[in-house]
Structure formats: structure tokens, C-alpha cells
Amino acid sequence: MTPPSPPSSIEEIARDPAWLPHRYDPGQDAIHFLPVPRATHRAATFLADDYLPKSVPPIVVRRAEAMAAGPVAAPLHFVFHSAFCLSTLLARAFDRPGWAMGLKEPMILHDIVGWRRRGEKGPDMAAVLD
């Protein structure tokens, strides 16, 4: 993967689906964004460090700044699948350019679950999940 040009603004990251919100750092209340083009995203077995390109460092953005970057242009809808089998098949079935994208085990969800298991309190967790 050729490293992309650095984004000119947080708004640019927020508008471009190629920027994956990859990790959440609760200590800094920041989101780590990685540039993951759709073809790379689709080819990755999982959205984990082992399966994503390592050539580009993440862009770290404070959560408040990322949230203020602007509203989503269209409504978001989610289907969460947590069974042990067929998750990759299901993600591929939903993956339709211009319509939907399947996220296969995104690390940011692992980070938030781990944060809660380490004892994070409800109100702080709720603010991050909003």
C-alpha cells in the first residue's frame, strides 16, 4: 500500500470511509485512525493489527474533536453478529460498495470491551459510546 497523503483536517478523516477508527485509547480519550482502502479492508481476514498494513502510522485524534468533526450525512444502521461461526461469510454478504461495509472484529470494539472489563464506570463508558 502506498502511504496516503496526510489529511488536511479532522473533518477530512471523518468524511472519508477509508480512514478506519482502529483503536481507542481511554487514557488519552483518543481514537487512532488508520488509512485502510476498501480493497485492503475487504481482503483483511480481521481488522486487527496482524492483518492490516503496518507501513503507515495512525492519526491520533481526541474523541471530542472527532465527534465535533461533523454529523454523519446518512443514517447509520448496524447488525452485530457475535456467534462463533460464519461471521466472515456474513460480513462479506453485507459488503456492497456504496451501500454497506462489513467490519470483521474491529479492534476499537475490543478496546472498549477491555476497558469496561478493567473496571471503567458506567457514566464514562456511556459518554464514549454515544
Q: How do the helices and strands line up, and which of them pair or pack?
A:
Elements: H1 10-15, E1 19-25, E2 30-35, H2 38-43, E3 59-62, H3 63-68, H4 87-94, H5 107-117, H6 122-129
Antiparallel strand pairs: 1-2, 2-3
Account of the 3D structure:
With about 130 residues, this protein is of the alpha+beta class. The protein has one domain. About 35% of the residues lie in helices and about 15% in strands. The chain has a 3-stranded antiparallel beta sheet with strand order 1-2-3. About 10% of the residues are buried.
Q: Helix tally? A: 6
Distance between the termini: 33 Å
Described by the principal axes of the CA atoms, the overall outline is: globular
**In total, how many domains does the architecture comprise?**
1
Compute the number of strand runs.
Answer: 3
Structural class: alpha+beta
Strand percentage lies at 5-15%
Average predicted confidence as pLDDT: 84
How do the strands line up in the largest sheet? 1-2-3
Please provide the ordered H/E string of secondary-structure elements.
HEEHEHHHH
Q: Characterize the biggest β-sheet.
A: 3 strands, antiparallel
Percent helix, as a range, is 25-40%
Poorly predicted ranges (pLDDT <50, ≥5 residues)?
A: none
Radius of gyration: 15 Å
